[in-house]
Design a protein that fits this description.
By secondary structure, this protein is of the alpha+beta class. The protein is built from one helix and eleven strands, in the order βββββββββββα. It has one helix at about 130-160; strands spanning about 5, 10, 20-25, 30, 35-40, 45-55, 65-75, 80-85, 90-95, 100-110, 120-125. The strands form two sheets. Strands 2, 3, 4, 6, 7, 8 and 10 form a seven-stranded antiparallel beta sheet that branches. It has a four-stranded antiparallel beta sheet with strand order 1-11-5-9, with no helix packed on it. The protein is elongated.
Length: about 170
């Protein structure tokens, strides 16, 4: 089952008036041999927020980078309402060595000169099952019986080719 990681962040670096903000998390543990899903949720509306992040191993200095571009636009055109994007975004990271990690996030947003600063919530989870992997595995495993059936059909067709009672030829 997924084990969520939660942390609090501290701000540093450029202020929102400069168009981006850098946030460092408290240290948290990452277990070995489990994939990682990082989810960003924002309150963007007809705007975007770009979140660039690093997972930094405190013992070894290993850095794993990731990007989370979040954008959400909506409107009405010709009497029809439309939406594009979503106010949240996921990124999957391959398993990292076990240890204590700190997350560095740098967020930049489109309307950074406006008065309202966007909200950002980031969640880290490990051991998350991906539906795409299961579907690809199912397709791959299904190919084997299909290939065996095709080979069997080809063999039977060749075997009956010279017979007067060939079930694969139509008699007219």
């Amino acid at each position: 089952s997924p084990s969520p990681g939660s942390f609090t962040g501290t701000s540093g670096g450029p202020t929102p008036a400069e168009g981006s903000q850098i946030i460092f998390s408290d240290a948290f543990e990452i277990a070995a041999r489990q994939n990682i899903r990082v989810t960003a949720e924002t309150n963007v509306d007809n705007s975007y927020m770009f979140v660039g992040g690093d997972l930094i191993n405190e013992e070894t200095g290993l850095v794993q980078q990731f990007d989370l571009p979040v954008e959400y636009y909506s409107g009405v055109e010709g009497g029809e309402s439309w939406t594009e994007g979503a106010p949240n975004k996921d990124v999957y990271i391959s398993a990292l060595p076990a240890g204590r990690y700190t997350m560095r996030l740098e967020a930049a947003w489109e309307d950074w000169k406006g008065t309202a600063e966007p909200r950002l919530t980031v969640r880290v989870e490990q051991g998350v099952a991906r539906g795409l992997n299961m579907i690809l595995a199912l397709v791959f495993v299904s190919l084997i019986p299909i290939l065996v059936a095709f080979r069997q059909f080809s063999f039977e067709r060749k075997r009956w080719a010279d017979s007067a009672f060939n079930p694969y030829e139509s008699s007219e």
